[in-house]
Design brief:
Shape: globular
Strand order of the largest sheet: 1-3-5-6-7
Distance between the termini: 71 Å
Length: about 280
């Protein structure tokens, strides 16, 4: 991908730049705010500088099978891509990929899905982190500081292969420093596709969701995420399920309310033929 490949053409090349290619077919460039989801073939080897610069509507980047783990990434690759939510890799979770490089190019919240053949096999979420340079003025020395567990979680790789045990272990420290919303997203993504998830790690994730029931449910209600709601509701206490059901009803999602209430139902009598 060349420099500024998908960036707004007016800003990258000026208002008088000649327009060719997709412009002729669709009446506008496939660039800038128009771009929402990009699927690239596995033959892509290099992302040049600012390839997605100012693509404010970009939510998802999908990489085809065979994408090399040695991807070459330029600078400012995803600058101002504030809506970017997920990298989707057409690769099994235990395969070497370019995910470490891609996730390292985004300091904001971003998720990743391993989906060989289009079927999600594993999901992970990398929380936002911040980098600071503090100057010691008399000595003119700069101290590099990193804040946020998201940086550590982006390092959970053996070479270019995701290390899920290390990722799950990092959750203990995340419980101290990360926001409730981020913790719930980490836990839900791992529980939805529990690739290489050890029982003790699974229990930590369940406990996190039980303690933050309404926080975990809020984004699911907003997205109408039925599969995730089916996973969440059995973990909750009756009072929390009732609260989630009320929020679903207030948002107009009757299916979600029914899911929450169904797990709280208790039968007081079993009927047999004599009753009939």
């Amino acid at each position: 991908l060349g420099p500024y490949c998908f960036s707004a053409r007016e800003r990258a090349f000026g208002p008088d730049a000649r327009r060719t290619g997709p412009q002729e077919l669709f009446g506008h460039a496939i660039a800038g705010d128009f771009v929402q989801r990009v699927t690239l073939p596995g033959t892509v080897r290099v992302f040049h500088n600012a390839a997605f610069y100012n693509c404010r509507g970009l939510t998802e980047l999908c990489l085809g099978p065979g994408t090399p783990e040695t991807l070459s990434l330029g600078s400012d690759l995803f600058t101002n891509c504030r809506a970017l939510e997920c990298f989707v890799l057409d690769a099994p979770p235990d395969a070497p990929t370019g995910l470490k490089r891609l996730a390292g190019a985004v300091s904001a919240d971003v998720g990743a899905v391993f989906a060989p053949g289009g079927q999600a096999a594993a999901r992970v979420f990398f929380p936002e982190y911040f980098e600071y340079l503090d100057e010691n003025t008399p000595a003119h020395i700069f101290n590099h500081s990193i804040e946020g567990e998201g940086y550590r979680m982006r390092q959970c790789f053996d070479g270019s292969t995701m290390n899920f045990d290390e990722y799950d272990s990092a959750f203990e420290q995340a419980l101290v420093s990360e926001s409730p919303a981020s913790l719930c997203r980490i836990a839900l993504d791992r529980m939805l596709c529990p690739w290489a998830l050890r029982p003790e790690a699974a229990e930590r994730y369940r406990a996190c969701l039980r303690e933050r029931a309404e926080t975990a449910a809020a984004p699911l209600i907003a997205r109408r995420a039925e599969q995730a709601m089916r996973l969440l509701c059995p973990l909750l206490e009756p009072a929390d399920r009732a609260a989630v059901a009320r929020r679903c009803a207030a948002a107009g999602w009757s299916e979600g309310a029914a899911l929450a209430l169904a797990h709280g139902a208790r039968h007081t009598k079993r009927y047999d033929f004599d009753d009939l």
